[in-house]
């Protein structure tokens, strides 16, 4: 959060999962996975329930159009998590992008929805996540990554900041 408010560059934190692929002499592909420490958020009430529900899907693989534990896409993850808390939200990321009040990046709070484009500078929404933690160490969000499935990542990585389009605070 400090980086967003003051323009400073926070050191990049390791991703929730990383993949190192190489082919040993036998020809098999090996994958190394490293987890970063869990960071508790400060959300309360319904939003805390939604965040806990989304976190329960961590490790679920990505599946375009998926809405079950067999596979989820980004907007499906949020629809399920909110649904488990008794809140009905739109299905697509474009519909979710107008389901709330606009929020500036420096004012993000746990439970806010953040929207991204496919490439740096894009204005077309193709991806959504939900803020889980905002503290002195930065902003984390949960989403369904097409390569890693449901994971939490740092919003402040260059990858996500360059693709960020908007944020909304859900109407609850």
Entry summary:
It comes from Hymenobacter nivis. With 172 residues, this protein is of the alpha+beta class.
What would your notes on this structure say?
Belongs to the peptidase C40 family. It holds the Pfam family NLPC_P60. Keywords: Hydrolase, Protease, Thiol protease. InterPro entries: NLP_P60_dom, Papain-like_cys_pep_sf, Peptidase_C40. The protein is of the alpha+beta class and 172 residues long. It has one domain (45-170): endopeptidase fold (from Nostoc punctiforme) (Alpha-Beta Complex), CATH 3.90.1720.10. It has five helices and eight strands, in the order H-H-E-E-H-H-E-E-E-E-E-H-E. It has a six-stranded antiparallel sheet with strand order 3-8-4-5-6-7. Helix 2 crosses helix 3 (74-84). The radius of gyration is 16 Å and the shape is globular. The protein starts with a helix and ends with a strand.
Topology, please?
Elements: H1 2-6, H2 45-55, E1 67-68, E2 71-72, H3 74-84, H4 93-96, E3 100-102, E4 113-116, E5 127-135, E6 138-145, E7 149-154, H5 158-163, E8 164-170
Helix pairs in contact: 2-3
Family: Belongs to the peptidase C40 family.
Organism: Hymenobacter nivis
InterPro entries: NLP_P60_dom, Papain-like_cys_pep_sf, Peptidase_C40
Rg value? 16 Å
CATH fold-level label: endopeptidase fold (from Nostoc punctiforme)
**Secondary-structure-derived class:** alpha+beta
Question: Which architecture per CATH?
Answer: Alpha-Beta Complex
Tell me the major beta sheet: 6 strands, antiparallel
Number of domains: 1
- CATH superfamily caption: endopeptidase domain like (from Nostoc punctiforme)
Number of strands: 8
In the predicted model, the low-confidence regions spanning at least 5 consecutive residues are 5-23, 29-35
Q: pLDDT average, as an integer?
A: 84
Shape: globular
Helix content: 10-25%
| Spatial ordering of strands, largest sheet | 3-8-4-5-6-7
Name the beta content range: 15-25%
């Amino acid at each position: 959060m400090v980086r967003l408010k003051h323009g400073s560059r926070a050191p990049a934190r390791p991703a929730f999962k990383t993949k190192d692929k190489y082919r040993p002499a036998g020809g098999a592909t090996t994958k190394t996975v490293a987890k970063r420490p869990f960071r508790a958020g400060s959300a309360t009430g319904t939003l805390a329930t939604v965040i806990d529900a989304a976190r329960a899907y961590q490790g679920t693989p990505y599946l375009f159009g998926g809405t079950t534990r067999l596979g989820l896409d980004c907007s499906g993850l949020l629809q399920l998590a909110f649904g488990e808390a008794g809140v009905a939200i739109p299905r697509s990321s474009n519909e979710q992008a107008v389901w709330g009040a606009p929020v500036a990046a420096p004012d993000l709070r746990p439970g806010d929805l953040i929207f991204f484009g496919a490439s740096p500078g894009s204005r077309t929404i193709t991806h959504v996540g939900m803020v889980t933690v905002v503290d002195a160490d930065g902003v984390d969000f949960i989403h369904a990554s097409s390569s890693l499935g449901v994971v939490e990542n740092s919003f402040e990585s260059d990858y996500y900041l360059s693709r960020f389009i908007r944020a909304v605070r859900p109407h609850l």
